[in-house]
């Protein structure tokens, strides 16, 4: 099964089970990837979390039933996963900007989020510069924090972590310690979801270093791999987010490679990260 087909299969599975309790494990299984990697890929491509997509789709369908049927509001609330009319009304108002009763009486406009269909995009207008490299395993040293991926908590916590390492001097220390082939400071996501009740990651801010681990830092071994190394040109964070989306929406669908599932790297080099000329890289292990 190809990469696009497996992702679409997972989306189709969500749609077929919208009226049931769906676990992230069962969704990711349809795409044959880990919970973390499915959630991350989905968010990169759609700019929303899996949970938010399910919520939007349920409230879209609930609005259609309110407008087109005579079913009781309490029955519709229960059907779409809300235990009380109050909880349903609160979520419905936040999403649509009006109450279920107003929707039933056709007062106001409703928002419709349609079923997702993954399409291969071969635009070509914005060329991607990349290379394939093979490296033996290497070591990085740095700091790490654990984040939950539920409700996008990692998307809030990781930028704060970067602010902290710049403020406390850790970022400057990592640049000084670097003695490896890769001369930047790296951001690394390590999936910890296995045997956990919720998707967790360790996020590292580190640098390539060989030798005894310096005081106050920790060591992470990066396994040997074939890597896709993608150039990023432009200010953070917009430039790197754009390239991530290109990789998954354009590059992977048109190549024979798939993500290997081991830790991916964002590599930040010395310089002004908000400059339009800033250079960084994305390293993705391939299979």
From TrEMBL:
InterPro entries: AraC_E-bd, Cass2, Homeodomain-like_sf, HTH_AraC, HTH_AraC-typ_CS, MarA-like, Reg_factor_effector_dom_sf, Tscrpt_reg_AraC-type_HTH. It comes from the Bacteria. SMART domains: AraC_E_bind, HTH_ARAC. Residues 8-106 form the HTH araC/xylS-type domain. It holds the Pfam family Cass2. Keywords: DNA-binding, Transcription, Transcription regulation. This is Effector binding domain-containing protein. It comes from Bacillus salipaludis.
């Amino acid at each position: 099964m190809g990469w696009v087909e497996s992702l679409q299969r997972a989306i189709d599975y969500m749609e077929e089970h919208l009226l049931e309790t769906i676990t992230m494990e069962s969704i990711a299984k349809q795409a044959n990837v880990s919970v973390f990697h499915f959630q991350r890929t989905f968010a990169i491509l759609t700019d929303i979390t899996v949970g938010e997509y399910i919520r939007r789709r349920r409230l879209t369908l609930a609005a259609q039933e309110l407008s087109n049927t005579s079913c009781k509001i309490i029955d519709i609330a229960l059907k779409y996963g809300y235990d009380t009319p109050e909880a349903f009304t609160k979520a419905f108002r936040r999403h649509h900007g009006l109450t279920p009763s107003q929707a039933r009486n056709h007062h106001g406009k409703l928002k419709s989020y349609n079923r997702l269909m993954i399409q291969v995009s071969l635009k070509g207008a914005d060329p991607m510069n990349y290379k394939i490299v093979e490296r033996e395993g290497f070591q990085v040293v740095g700091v790490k924090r654990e984040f939950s991926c539920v409700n996008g908590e990692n998307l809030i916590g990781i930028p704060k972590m970067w602010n902290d390492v710049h403020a406390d001097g850790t970022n400057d220390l990592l640049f000084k310690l670097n003695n490896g082939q890769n001369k930047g400071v790296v951001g690394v996501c390590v999936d910890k979801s296995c045997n956990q009740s919720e998707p967790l990651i360790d996020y590292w801010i580190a640098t390539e270093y060989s030798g005894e681990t310096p005081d106050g830092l920790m060591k992470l071994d990066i396994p040997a791999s074939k890597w896709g190394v993608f150039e990023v040109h432009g200010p953070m964070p917009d430039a790197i987010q754009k390239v991530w989306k290109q990789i998954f929406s354009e590059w992977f669908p048109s190549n024979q490679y798939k993500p290997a599932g081991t830790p991916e790297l964002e590599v930040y080099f010395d310089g002004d990260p908000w400059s339009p000329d800033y250079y960084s890289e994305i390293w993705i292990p391939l299979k």
